[in-house]
Structure formats: structure tokens, C-alpha cells
Write a structure and sequence with these properties.
Pathway: Amino-acid biosynthesis; L-threonine biosynthesis; L-threonine from L-aspartate: step 5/5. InterPro entries: Ser/Thr_deHydtase_PyrdxlP-BS, Thr_synth_N, Thr_synth_N_sf, Thr_synthase-like, Threonine_Synthase, TrpB-like_PALP, TrpB-like_PALP_sf. Its EC number is 4.2.3.1. Helices cover 47% and strands 15% of the residues. It has 20 helices and 15 strands. The strands form four sheets. It has a six-stranded mixed beta sheet with strand order 3-4-14-9-10-13, with helices on both faces. The protein has a five-stranded parallel beta sheet with strand order 8-5-6-7-15, with helices on both faces. Helix 11 links the parallel strand 9 and strand 10. The relative contact order is 0.14. Ligand LJ64HWYM binds next to helix 6.
Length: 462
């Protein structure tokens, strides 16, 4: 499989080069040259696979024999051996038509571990096999950072620097990142919000001289490996729902900020998984919901919400969707992105908007409504949702029609967001791994949110 850029100015490259390139060198995002198609007969066979077996089959479609199958199998097995649940991503049935796919059984209690345990191991493999220098630069609104750090801490030949918005992540998220004392980890607490962090890293990746001089590698969902790893749980969740007797129409509801997770679902559907509706759930930072419902893609005012990981305005994977929305015409995507840079907005209407609304249904969840859902599900089902998952469940309740079953992706364990849970007087016990964080010293550097300030830190660290 070869990978090309959404902006069309990068010669096709193999999987490992695509992972190492991260952001495409022309400023676009890498996508597979063709999306592999999975026939219904194969889907039927896949229903019987374990999570790791399924991951191996799906990765093989995108990696060919660039990584020998035996090596790939070892990478996959070691990545999911760190999960606390034997099913890796178990499906919980709450009622006949409401399911929650728990993606938080990895080391940092968030869905990011599903892809980042694999990507961390893949980087170590590539570093050894190709003797490549791996200097990871990432931005986080809370979950990606901890997970990426956990994936590579202490690994030979790898360094990682993560930017998080100063005092805008939950206490547990902050502790998970900043209590790591391995010498290959640098945490920068940036004065600003997540969009500032993401803009800075994108600018640094787009500065090709700087990127090559410091061997910058990406762990955010701009990296195609993240998306591919995240498609696996759509297949797995769907198969489990079928086995548990779900009705024929199965939706997924996806809490989303950076559009990576829901783009993985879109890709799974394009591969042939018969997902009925893809429900896009945002919090009050609702640029994506406004795009789907009104055709306007324009950042609004930044809001701090109970679901801080989704406090995002400019969604980095949106460009990948534009590429498919406009019939894989890289020239159109390049000019749309140039237009967005100049005008700060994009609009779609007519047939294109109808296509968007055929691809997604979207709902933006108000802050208090998110807490109401947490209380209601706790009372009705005795099930504690984290605030991000609660946004997904709220959107499912609004948009799923009778006769449809909806699987909401549960993106994080509620213990990561006790600040919000406590507002509804719900008491939870922290898992011991999280409780232990409170006794540890923290290591982080507070910096201004400017490219120059970050660049200076990176020059010292890399
Ligand atoms: N919600 C994310 C933001 C970064 O998204 P990514 O999927 O591109 O890594 C976070 O928790 O950091």
C-alpha cells in the first residue's frame, strides 16, 4: 500500500515512511492510495476473531509485507497485552438499543491507548530496524499526551515532547503526563488553549528544514497509523453488537474534537463495515456539528467545558474528510485549505452539504446537558459515564431513530474527570494506578504559546 497527500504534492510512499513523515511535507495529510475493500464473506469470518487477530488482519491490508507478518503480529500482541481487559475493548449493553464500547482499558484509561500503544512499539521497531532518529512532538488537550508518553517512556532511541494547554486539562490528565520522570520525556505546559498547541506543532512540522533537522515525528491523529489503529474497534464493536443480538441497523456515536476518531469510523464504513449512522457528538466547542448541520466551518469562541479533551476548534483530520468529500481531488483540497487559512472559514451547500449530511448526523451537547446525562445513566443503568462519553450518549439519544441500535464510543474512564462527576454528587473510587499519581512529584515547564518559545525548548531537548 502506498500513501499520498490530500494536497497532492508528495510522491507516493510506503507505510513506514508515511508514519515517519506524520504531517505530509506539502502541509496536507497522508491517506492510503486506495481504501481496501472488505467483502461481506470476509466480514463474516472476522466476526470470530479476537481483538488482536482482527487488528492483525486490518493492519495487514494497509501495511502489505513492508513489515513481515510475524513481526507485525508481535507488535500487535505486545501492544494489546498491556490492556487490563481480555477483550481489549469490551462492549457493554445498557439496553436493547444502547451500547457503550469501552475503549479505556489501556494503561492511561483513555481510547488513545488503543492506537498509541501500537504506535509507540512501531516507533521502537522502526528506530531499531532503520536506525531512524525518533523525536516525537505532539499536542494534547489531555488524553493523547499521557497515552503517547506511556507508549514510549524509557524507550531507547526515542524522545518525546508534549505540549498541553496550561491549566486546561483535568487534574488526573495533568498528573498522568507530568509525574513521568523518564529522561526521554519533556512536558511543556503552554499558556493558551489546545488550538494554540496544535497550531504551533503544525507550523513546526510544516517548516521542513526544522522538521528534518530535529527528526520530528508525530503521534497525533495527523499520523495515519493512529487512524488505521482506531478503525479496528469499529469492526470489533460492530461484531460484538451483532453477537449480542442488536437490531440490524447499527449506529456509532462518537464524541469528537479533532475529528480523528470519527474519521476512523468513516474509513471503516468505506472499507465495507455496514455502519448505519455515524453520529458526531461535540461539546459546546461545536464547529464540527455546525459544519454538518449548517455547512459552515468556522471557529467560534473557545469555551472551557466539562469535557476538556474536546475543547477544540480547528479539527486536524477534517482535511482528510474534505479529500473524500471532493472526490479525492487534491487540487480542490489544497485550494480549500488555502482559502480557510486566508478567510478563517469554509462553506458548503447544495449537493455537497447533502453529501455531508448523508455521511454524518451531528449534535452539539450543552454543558449542563452533559452532566444531566451522567446523572440519568447513573440512576437508570447504574453505569458511570465520563463527560466525553456522556456527550456521545446524549447525541445518540437525540439522533438515533426507533429500530436503530447505537454504540457510543466510551473514550475515557470517569476517574479521569472527577471534577465534573463530583458536580452531580456522584462518588467514585479511583483505580489504584490513578490514586497513586497524587503522591508523585511533577515535572513540567510552563512556556509562552509562541513558536519561538517552543522552538527554543525543542532545540535544547532534541
Ligand atoms: N483530544 C485529544 C486532542 C488531540 O487529538 P489527536 O487525536 O489528534 O491526538 C487529546 O486528548 O489530546
Amino acid at each position: 500500500m502506498q500513501y499520498i497527500s490530500t494536497r497532492g504534492q508528495v510522491s507516493p510512499i510506503g507505510f513506514i515512511d508515511a508514519v515517519l513523515m506524520g504531517l505530509a511535507d506539502d502541509g496536507g495529510l497522508l491517506v492510503p492510495e486506495q481504501i481496501p475493500q472488505v467483502a461481506p464473506s470476509i466480514l463474516k469470518q472476522w466476526q470470530e476473531l479476537t481483538y488482536t487477530e482482527l487488528a492483525l488482519e486490518i493492519f495487514s491490508l494497509y501495511i502489505d509485507d513492508e513489515i513481515p507478518r510475524a513481526d507485525l503480529q508481535k507488535l500487535v500482541e505486545s501492544s494489546y497485552a498491556t490492556f487490563r481487559h481480555t477483550e481489549v475493548t469490551p462492549l457493554q449493553k445498557l439496553s436493547d438499543d444502547r451500547y457503550v464500547l469501552e475503549l479505556f482499558h489501556g494503561p492511561t484509561f483513555a481510547f488513545k491507548d488503543v492506537a498509541l500503544q501500537f504506535l509507540g512499539n512501531l516507533y521502537a521497531y522502526v528506530s531499531e530496524r532503520r536506525n531512524s532518529v525518533i523525536h516525537i512532538l505532539g499536542a494534547t488537550s489531555g488524553d493523547t499526551g499521557a497515552s503517547a508518553i506511556e507508549g514510549v517512556r524509557g524507550k531507547e532511541g526515542i524522545r518525546i515532547c508534549i505540549l498541553h494547554p496550561h491549566e486546561k486539562v483535568s487534574k488526573v490528565q495533568e498528573l498522568q503526563m507530568t509525574t513521568v520522570d523518564d529522561a526521554n520525556v519533556l512536558n511543556l505546559s503552554v499558556k493558551g488553549n489546545f488550538d494554540d498547541c496544535q497550531r504551533i506543532i503544525k507550523d513546526l512540522f510544516a517548516d521542513i528544514d526544522f522538521k528534518h533537522r530535529y527528526h520530528l515525528r508525530a503521534i497525533n491523529s495527523i499520523n495515519i497509523a493512529r487512524i488505521l489503529a482506531q478503525t479496528v474497534y469499529y469492526f470489533y464493536g460492530y461484531f460484538q453488537a451483532v453477537k449480542q443480538g442488536s437490531p440490524a441497523k447499527i449506529n456509532f456515536s462518537v464524541p469528537t474534537g479533532n475529528f480523528g476518531d470519527i474519521f476512523a469510523g468513516y474509513l471503516a464504513k468505506k472499507m465495507g463495515l455496514p455502519i448505519h449512522k455515524l453520529i458526531l457528538a461535540t461539546n459546546e466547542n461545536n464547529i464540527l456539528a455546525r459544519f454538518v448541520n449548517e455547512g459552515l466551518y468556522q471557529p467560534g469562541d473557545f469555551k472551557e467545558t466539562y469535557s476538556p479533551s474536546m475543547d477544540i476548534q480547528v479539527a486536524s483530520n477534517f482535511e482528510r474528510y474534505l479529500y473524500y468529500l471532493y472526490g479525492e481531488e487534491a487540487g480542490i483540497v489544497a485550494s480549500l485549505m488555502a482559502q480557510f487559512k486566508t478567510d478563517g472559514r469554509l462553506t458548503v451547500s447544495g449537493d455537497i452539504l447533502a453529501q455531508v449530511q448523508g455521511d454524518f448526523a451531528a449534535y452539539s451537547v450543552a454543558n449542563e446537558a452533559c452532566l444531566d446525562t451522567i446523572s440519568a445513566y447513573h440512576q437508570t443503568y447504574g453505569y458511570l459515564l465520563d463527560p466525553h462519553t456522556a456527550c456521545g450518549v446524549t447525541a445518540a439519544d437525540q439522533l438515533a431513530a426507533p429500530g436503530e441500535a447505537t454504540i457510543t464510543l466510551s473514550t475515557a474512564h470517569p476517574a479521569k474527570f472527577d471534577e465534573a462527576i463530583q458536580l452531580r454528587q456522584i462518588k467514585q473510587t479511583y483505580p489504584p494506578q490513578i490514586q497513586a499519581l497524587f503522591a508523585k512529584p511533577q515535572f513540567q515547564t510552563v512556556v509562552d504559546g509562541t513558536n519561538e518559545a517552543i522552538q527554543a525548548q525543542l532545540e535544547k531537548f532534541f
